[in-house]
Amino acid sequence: MKAIGPEGFEAMFRADVDPWNYRASRFEAFKRKVLLRACGDRPYGRTLELACANGETTLALAPRSLRLLALDSSPTVITEAERRTAHLDGVETAVAVLPREMPKGTFDLIVVSEILYYLGLRDCRVLLRSLANATRGRIVIVHHVRDFGDAAQKPFRAQADARRFLRARMSEVFHERHGRFEALAFDAHRSRGASR
Predict the structure, then answer these.
(1) Lesser CB count within 10 Å: N end or C end of the chain?
(2) Pairing of strands 181-188, 135-144
(3) Bridge partner list, 40
(4) Would you say the pTM of this structure is higher than 0.85?
């Protein structure tokens, strides 16, 4: 099977704006709870969420964030996420194809969920470098680690590469593996500046 790209995601979301049943799936709800645990208990000033899909995780992150920018490559799901979060202050959504449209500035929390294995190895490493340079707080990474057909690289390898890359630059503060997915969190070193 060919790896899915932004055009493929857009076609998929046009057919079904919630193809993984984020709203009602018990598994997705459990995975989201683990993701939120990885974020920690403290509030964040500026949060960045990558691959926000229909905004289900955005809704959960909003109360923890003074300002939240949620990105996805699909205009269809960004429209849906925008509709679902319109009542929330400080939440902004935008279409962005990563890594080339990574937003500028620094963030206190960056959430990276189910995106890295959809990128080729080179783009994945470019994105990881951008994320490490853009955080002044925590990066949370949650991904499936079992193979599936439309990924650009093996999910467990993408997750392991991300872990190795970020551990060399940040402090790993959270690790949970639950069957087919893994959650990690890394904090910026306090002695380092935001830009490396």
Answers:
(1) N
(2) antiparallel
(3) none
(4) yes
